Hsp20 family protein
Amino acid sequence: MRTIDLSPLYRSFIGSDHLASMIDAATRHEKQTSYPPYNIELIADDKYRITMAIAGFAKDEVTIEVQENTLKVTGAKPSAEQSETERKFLHKGISERNFERKFQLGDNVKVLAADLEHGLLHIDLERKIPEAQKPKRIEIGSNLIENS
C-alpha cells in the first residue's frame, strides 16, 4: 500500500480539505480493471473529451450518469446464456462483458454531449467557471468596503 505525504499541499492550498479524500479515492480506483480502455483529451483550454472503446455495445446498452462530481459510465449486455445459445464461437477474443467506469469531475465541469460511433463512446465535457469565481484585479489604494 502506498502512502502519500500531503503536507506540502496543505501549505499551499487553502480550503482544499477534500483533496486528501480525492487522492485516496483515486488510489483505490487503481485496483479497478482496465476494461474498457479509454483516452482523456484536452480539446481546448476548458474543453475535454473522454473516448472509451466499447466495441459490441449498442446505445441502449450503455448508461451515462452524473451525480455530484462523479461521471459513471455503465455497459450491460443481455444475459450470457441467451446469447451463447444462438452463437457458437471457435475463438472469442472480443470482450463483451459488462462494465462500470467512474471518473471524478472537477468543480464546475459539466457534461455537454455523448456520442457512440464505430465502437467508440465520446463524452464531451466543459469547465465553466462562474463569474463570481473568476479572478478579479484589485487596484492598490481602492476602497472595497463602502462605509455606510
User: Anything to note?
Assistant: The chain has a mean pLDDT of 80. Helices lie at 7-12, 19-29, 80-86. Residues 34-131 form a domain with the Immunoglobulin-like fold (CATH 2.60.40.790). The two ends are 58 Å apart (CA to CA).
